[in-house]
Design brief:
The protein is about 35% helix and about 15% strand. By secondary structure, it is of the alpha/beta class. The chain has one domain: NAD(P)-binding Rossmann-like Domain (Rossmann fold). A 7-stranded parallel beta sheet has the order 3-2-1-4-5-6-9, sandwiched between helices. A two-stranded parallel sheet has the order 7-8. α1 (about 15-20) links the parallel β1 and β2 (about 30). α1 crosses α6 and α3 (about 80-100) packs parallel to α4. The longest helix is centred in the middle third of the chain and has 21 residues, at about 80-100.
Length: about 210
């Protein structure tokens, strides 16, 4: 099995990649990144790419499954347009290119509350991406929808850090779907989707990731 992974340097992606590399039956992991990864592995192919100009004729698009953990924030991106490019356009273009070359499974790290009709811009972009992916008719499409992600980020996100600190304190009192989503469980759900793809469209909600 060959699996393409986009977003290996992010909080979730850093946990997805080692799981893929150690999974029995995975012969190659193609990790698309903007900069070269600091790890080497005999089953790892690490194309350094510009996500705005992906090489559409590359042989490595021919994979069995795709896991996408690409994502940013409006603050980090600098504008709503830039955020949409990273969280909608890039994941969709990757899905289109891999599907053309025969990929049958796509697992997306989406977000709780994703809806194309949401009044919240972030949730609406996530929902529009989900709808666009459904239209590609992947035999197996898994949408993982975490809430606030419980993990230690390398980059500083003060607002998110404050919310996470409060959520951790209140975890025993919160309904399960509102508890922070553990990064390891998100990674497990994405990898399981690629290795054991369920038919049709599946949604993994936040209550399963707490």
């Amino acid at each position: 099995m060959k699996i393409l992974h986009a977003g290996a340097t992010g909080l979730v992606g850093q946990q997805v990649l080692p799981r893929l590399l150690s999974a029995p039956g995975v012969t190659q992991v193609i990790a698309l990144t903007r900069r070269l990864l600091e790890i080497e592995h005999p089953r790892l192919l690490n194309p350094v790419v510009d996500f705005d100009t992906l090489p559409e004729d590359a042989d490595w698009w021919a994979v069995d499954a795709v896991i996408c953990t690409l994502g940013t924030t409006i603050a980090d991106a600098g504008s709503q347009a830039a955020f949409r490019r990273v969280d909608h356009d890039y994941p969709l273009h990757i899905a289109q290119l891999a599907r053309r070359r025969g990929a049958h499974t796509y697992a997306l790290n989406s977000a709780m509350g994703a809806s194309a009709t949401s009044s919240i811009f972030y949730n609406r972009v996530k929902g529009e991406l989900e709808a666009a992916l459904i239209a590609l008719d992947y035999p197996s499409l898994v949408l993982v929808r975490p809430g606030l992600i419980d993990g230690d980020r390398a980059q500083s996100r003060p607002g998110e850090a404050r919310m996470l600190a409060v959520s951790r304190l209140l975890r025993p009192l919160l309904p399960r779907k509102w508890k922070p989503s553990r990064v390891a469980r998100i990674a497990d759900a994405l990898v399981d989707a690629a290795l054991h793809p369920p038919p049709g469209i599946s949604v993994v909600e936040a209550d399963r990731l707490a």
